[in-house]
């Protein structure tokens, strides 16, 4: 205990600084704009096809709120059901404890195959395994691209979204994976050939979980490529790491999420493969199943009555794809495996340290436009949590540059004469602006322009114009 | 220091000190829908899987035509006798290399969902263990008309969650490159669904 939470990457700058660097990368912005534009249109069509979409969202919201309100009971039921079916349940308070458990369970194996999982990315499992002499082979195509490129993920669903096909082919080439061209089909073929032997020979697999059913002990993984099925079926031992909030109470509840998740994430009526397993089944799949239940800041998040709704998240990433901030800065600017609007509210709560400047900057990575709430399949009111967390940051820090700026603004707006003087001062800013933009304001205004350009004020304010023409 | 289990549960209980009320779940979403073979065929084809629709008497001739001369993996309890095919029967269990080298696999299914174009396998009669339908590059799956559900809720109600389940919607695919879906990664790259009318 007491070690830093690896949900944020060590050494990451605060969001404004990271965003400024990302904004200068035109290739990144082009890749992101192309990908998010494509997926936004498709999601809208997939959702429009269901006349009961809003009712499904409300059901999804209520099911998750039920889980959270009675989380201790549901966790105990899940544990009992998994154990009764021959699985072994482990509990981990934080990332370090979860990593220790997994490393111990891997035993003497030197290589394991992995299904893409946010929970294992959050705890830095691959790095912990490497430190213990175990190589974790990522088998999801996008995770493989990130791993081979010695890169970091920039999207929840599609971690390599910041890369285009030409860049991916080059990453493959440098790692000795020969692709016949840069068409997605040819790149996928190269990954298939590369991973086939690993699937057939690895003895241990590691996965995450999309859902677990408390009643029955069933664990659910949704995927597309079949790498998940390979990992969940072929090895002798399966280790699944799952956040404690991933529960649904009953089997029937899955009928809601199997409709909400695919349409929200990949914009499909159904993702190609969904696997459900309950403990172990003799003669079918791994003989050993371990389920690691992970806290790592979730109970701290649960303790905040406003902030706890972030735990409803089913990691669909729809909020990333519609976010104007995400589309321009990319995922890596958030300095965490959870980027975008959901990351801006989840990451700082999981970190749970008001003095962590990088995490504290994340609730400001938003224009509060509300598009994220509109698309969220479990109706997380992200703007509400953002403003709530901003208030928490301000009260934790006392007087900050922004609170001083806001107090100054209140003083200026509070008196007409002061307001007009400030406006005339502002019009001087025209001499500073090039191309009609101001990139740096003086005084308290510098806090505003530190992360954005301000439009140049008009030569004449409305009040001046009114006095000249009508006064 | 308490063990991890007790401590996590204690933290959960402390976090819920405000005693939030568990809300009632509104179940007013659609429970039923179109269970027609026509809709299932359209939705399966949308994933670029091949679809055939036949009457009960036409099934075996169709399978014979699709699989002629091939080495096809099958579960030991497959209910159809098809001539002209080299069968690799999964009893005793075939080694992974043999499955990997098969030309294809033939199975039935436990259920299908018409509006989403999904077939579901549960390891029951004519379906075999999960690896059987995963490693061969071509999966031929037979769906009877009475197995088709008209909605996701109806399908889940028919399934037993204690069995290992695989929901299959089209051939293996990825959207990982520029968020553009392409078919054919690790699972079977060809999926062929045979729909059998009740009469």
Automatic annotation (TrEMBL), chain A:
<keyword id="KW-0004">4Fe-4S</keyword>
<keyword id="KW-0249">Electron transport</keyword>
<keyword id="KW-0411">Iron-sulfur</keyword>
<keyword id="KW-0408">Iron</keyword>
<dbReference type="Pfam" id="PF13183">
    <property type="entry name" value="Fer4_8"/>
</dbReference>
<dbReference type="GO" id="GO:0006089">
    <property type="term" value="P:lactate metabolic process"/>
</dbReference>
<dbReference type="InterPro" id="IPR004452">
    <property type="entry name" value="LutB/LldF"/>
</dbReference>
<dbReference type="InterPro" id="IPR009051">
    <property type="entry name" value="Helical_ferredxn"/>
</dbReference>
<dbReference type="GO" id="GO:0051539">
    <property type="term" value="F:4 iron, 4 sulfur cluster binding"/>
</dbReference>
<feature type="domain" description="4Fe-4S ferredoxin-type">
    <location>
        <begin position="303"/>
        <end position="333"/>
    </location>
</feature>
<dbReference type="InterPro" id="IPR024569">
    <property type="entry name" value="LutB_C"/>
</dbReference>
<dbReference type="InterPro" id="IPR017900">
    <property type="entry name" value="4Fe4S_Fe_S_CS"/>
</dbReference>
<keyword id="KW-0677">Repeat</keyword>
<dbReference type="InterPro" id="IPR003741">
    <property type="entry name" value="LUD_dom"/>
</dbReference>
<keyword id="KW-0479">Metal-binding</keyword>
<protein>
    <submittedName>
        <fullName>Iron-sulfur cluster-binding protein</fullName>
    </submittedName>
</protein>
<dbReference type="GO" id="GO:0046872">
    <property type="term" value="F:metal ion binding"/>
</dbReference>
<dbReference type="Pfam" id="PF02589">
    <property type="entry name" value="LUD_dom"/>
</dbReference>
<dbReference type="InterPro" id="IPR037171">
    <property type="entry name" value="NagB/RpiA_transferase-like"/>
</dbReference>
<dbReference type="InterPro" id="IPR017896">
    <property type="entry name" value="4Fe4S_Fe-S-bd"/>
</dbReference>
<keyword id="KW-0813">Transport</keyword>
<dbReference type="Pfam" id="PF11870">
    <property type="entry name" value="LutB_C"/>
</dbReference>
Automatic annotation (TrEMBL), chain B:
<feature type="domain" description="LUD">
    <location>
        <begin position="101"/>
        <end position="196"/>
    </location>
</feature>
<dbReference type="InterPro" id="IPR003741">
    <property type="entry name" value="LUD_dom"/>
</dbReference>
<protein>
    <submittedName>
        <fullName>Lactate utilization protein C</fullName>
    </submittedName>
</protein>
<dbReference type="Pfam" id="PF02589">
    <property type="entry name" value="LUD_dom"/>
</dbReference>
<dbReference type="InterPro" id="IPR037171">
    <property type="entry name" value="NagB/RpiA_transferase-like"/>
</dbReference>
<dbReference type="InterPro" id="IPR024185">
    <property type="entry name" value="FTHF_cligase-like_sf"/>
</dbReference>
């Amino acid at each position: 205990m007491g070690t830093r939470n690896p949900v944020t990457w060590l050494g990451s700058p605060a969001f404004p600084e990271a965003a400024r660097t990302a904004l200068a990368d035109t290739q990144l912005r082009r890749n992101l704009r192309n990908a998010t534009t494509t997926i936004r249109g498709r999601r809208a069509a997939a959702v429009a096809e269901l006349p009961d979409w809003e009712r499904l969202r409300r059901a999804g919201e209520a099911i998750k709120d039920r889980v959270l309100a009675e989380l201790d009971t549901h966790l105990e039921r899940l544990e009992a059901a998994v154990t009764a079916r021959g699985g072994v349940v482990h509990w981990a308070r934080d990332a370090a404890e979860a990593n220790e458990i997994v490393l111990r369970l891997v035993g003497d194996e030197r290589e394991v195959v992995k299904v893409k999982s946010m929970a294992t990315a959050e705890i830095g499992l691959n790095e912990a395994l490497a430190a213990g002499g175990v190589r974790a082979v990522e088998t999801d195509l996008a995770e493989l691209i990130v791993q081979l490129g010695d890169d970091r993920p920039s999207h929840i669903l599609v971690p390599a979204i910041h890369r285009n096909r030409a860049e991916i082919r080059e990453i493959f080439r440098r790692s000795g994976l020969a692709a016949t061209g840069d068409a997605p089909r040819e790149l996928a073929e190269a990954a298939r050939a590369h991973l086939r032997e690993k699937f057939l020979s690895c003895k241990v697999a590691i996965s995450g979980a999309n859902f677990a059913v408390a009643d029955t002990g069933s664990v659910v993984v949704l995927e597309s490529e079949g790498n998940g099925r390979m990992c969940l079926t072929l090895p002798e031992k399966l280790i699944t790491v799952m956040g404690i909030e991933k529960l649904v109470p009953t089997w029937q509840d899955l009928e809601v999420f199997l409709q909400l998740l695919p349409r929200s994430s990949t914009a499909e009526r159904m993702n190609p493969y969904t696997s459900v397993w309950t403990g172990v089944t003799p003669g079918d799949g791994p003989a050993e199943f371990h389920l690691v239940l992970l806290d790592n800041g979730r109970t701290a998040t649960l303790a905040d009555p406003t902030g706890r709704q972030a735990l409803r998240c089913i990691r669909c990433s729809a909020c990333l794809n519609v976010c104007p901030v995400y589309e321009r800065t990319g995922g890596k600017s958030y300095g965490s495996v959870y980027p975008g609007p959901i990351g801006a509210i989840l990451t700082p709560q999981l970190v749970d340290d008001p003095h962590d400047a990088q995490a504290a900057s994340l609730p400001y990575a938003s224009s509060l436009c509300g598009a994220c709430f509109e698309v969220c399949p479990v109706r997380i009111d992200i703007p509400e949590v953002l403003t709530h967390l901003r208030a928490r940051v301000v009260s934790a820090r006392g007087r900050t540059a922004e609170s001083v700026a806001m107090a100054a603004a209140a003083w200026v707006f509070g008196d007409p004469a002061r307001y007009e003087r400030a406006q005339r001062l502002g019009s001087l800013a025209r001499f500073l602006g090039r191309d009609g933009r101001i990139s740096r304001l003086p005084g308290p205004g510098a806090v505003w322009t530190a992360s954005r350009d301000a439009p140049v004020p008009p030569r004449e304010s409305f009040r001046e114009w009114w006095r000249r023409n009508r006064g | 220091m308490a063990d991890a289990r007790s401590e996590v549960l204690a933290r959960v209980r402390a976090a819920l000190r405000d005693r939030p009320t568990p809300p009632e779940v509104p179940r007013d979403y659609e429970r039923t829908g179109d269970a027609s073979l026509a809709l299932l065929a359209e939705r399966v084809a949308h994933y670029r899987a091949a679809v055939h629709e036949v009457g009960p008497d036409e099934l075996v001739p169709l399978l014979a035509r699709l699989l002629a001369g091939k080495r096809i993996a099958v579960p030991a309890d497959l209910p159809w006798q098809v001539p002209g095919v080299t069968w690799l029967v999964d009893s005793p269990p075939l080694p992974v290399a043999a499955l990997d080298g098969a030309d294809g696999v033939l199975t039935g299914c436990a259920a299908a969902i018409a509006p989403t174009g999904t077939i579901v396998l549960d390891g029951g009669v004519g379906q075999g263990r999960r690896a059987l339908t995963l490693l061969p590059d071509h999966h031929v799956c037979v769906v009877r008309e009475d197995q088709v559900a008209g909605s996701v809720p109806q399908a889940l109600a028919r399934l037993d969650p204690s069995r290992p389940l695989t929901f299959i919607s089209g051939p293996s695919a990825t959207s990982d490159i520029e968020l553009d879906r392409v078919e054919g990664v690790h699972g079977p790259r060809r999926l062929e669904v045979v729909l059998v009318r009740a009469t």
